[in-house]
Amino acid sequence: MSVRPWRDIHRRQSRQIMVGNVPVGGDAPVTVQTMTNTLTSDAKATIDQIRRCEEAGADIIRVSCPDEESTAALKQIVRAARVPIVADIHFHYKRALEAADAGAACLRINPGNIGSSARVQEVVNAAKANNCAIRIGVNAGSLEKDLLEKYGEPCPEALVESALDHIKLLQDADFHEYKVAVKASDVFLAVAAYQQLAEAVDCPLHLGITEAGGLIGGTVKSAIGMGSLLWYGIGDTIRVSLSAEPEEEVRVGYEILKSLGIRTRGVRVVSCPSCARQGFDVIRTVEKLEERLKHISTPLSLSVLGCVVNGPGEARETDIGVTGGGNGKHMIYLSGLTDHTIANEDMIDHVVKLVEAKAAEIEAHKAAAEQAVAAE
């Protein structure tokens, strides 16, 4: 493959921390996070939702711990989860102590909001004792009053100053296993704040456009904001904040990373917007294929093109391709080469089987390669 320097992303060098068994920052992959929306005190409902998020590919999952009932349920939740659990704490420092003791891999807490330096030290001591990281989460909607008075309104400088103030409290307590977010619902504000913070600190950065909106609007805002930052190498872990089920946040997060070539997971679909030339219903076909291929985690590519204008060219670049043809017969491409035709009524089932077989083949080759390395 030819060298494509215009595709290169030079990632900002941050130091690495551990969130449970997941490395964040440094040369570790950019992780995808989400947050449950069940009552954490309802351990069964929360675990069920965590399982769906894990199946979608979540690397880290956050749960809210606003009360004692929630932190009491946390031990059971942490024990059942297959990925690290972050406990979301706001003002009650005792909830942070309880969450750390319950096995949370990370505490989302702003040290400046929990009171005295003695309380901060208590939280730090609990985090150290339980190998627990901390995520500082600055939000434009909840900036400190003194910063709003100083700057007049939420602005990048105010967000960054808030983050640096919180960081100093942890550093003064000799705690360094932290990551930081400076979120805003305004894309320009968030991007500018992250850019400034990236210049000022070496810790991992957690990206997010907060209160981004529903599935479509929130996806667009998140892709523009986080995509811009990731493109310039800023960001070590991401959460797409949507008014949608948390597993959808995970899927959108991976789509953002896939579009930039940062991480690959599952089937990358290349499809046309459809037009009068289409030989089959492209829109409905893609909808059905995306739904039926959600279970595939192996990275591979599939092109679905309605006609032969761009179809053959796109199919040459994908593992599996289909282009619309005449008389209800469509061309199937394998590894970029024409292979066979398929009737319209059999196409979706046939493509699903081809993708599943290709995924199994890739996984078998991967396992064989790993065994060969282990045997050396």
TrEMBL record:
Q: Does the keyword Metal-binding apply?
A: yes
The record, for SUPFAM superfamilies, names: Dihydropteroate synthetase-like, Nitrite and sulphite reductase 4Fe-4S domain-like
Needed cofactors, names only, are:
[4Fe-4S] cluster
Keywords, in A-Z order: 4Fe-4S, Iron, Iron-sulfur, Isoprene biosynthesis, Metal-binding, Oxidoreductase
EC number(s) reported in the record:
1.17.7.3
InterPro entries per the UniProt record, alphabetical: Dihydropteroate_synth-like_sf, IspG_bac, IspG_bac-typ, IspG_C, IspG_TIM, NO2/SO3_Rdtase_4Fe4S_sf
How the cofactor is bound: the record states: Binds 1 [4Fe-4S] cluster.
Q: Which domain of life is it from?
A: Bacteria
- Ranges for domain IspG TIM-barrel: 14-254
Instruction: Show the Gene3D superfamilies listed in the entry.
Output: Dihydropteroate synthase-like, Sulfite Reductase Hemoprotein, domain 1
Membership in a protein family: Belongs to the IspG family.
Described by its record, this protein's role is as follows:
Converts 2C-methyl-D-erythritol 2,4-cyclodiphosphate (ME-2,4cPP) into 1-hydroxy-2-methyl-2-(E)-butenyl 4-diphosphate.
Question: Which HAMAP family does the record associate with it?
Answer: IspG
Which PANTHER family does the UniProt entry name for this protein? Answer: 4-HYDROXY-3-METHYLBUT-2-EN-1-YL DIPHOSPHATE SYNTHASE, 4-HYDROXY-3-METHYLBUT-2-EN-1-YL DIPHOSPHATE SYNTHASE (FERREDOXIN), CHLOROPLASTIC
Protein name in the entry: 4-hydroxy-3-methylbut-2-en-1-yl diphosphate synthase (flavodoxin)
Q: Which organism is it from?
A: Sphingomonas chungangi
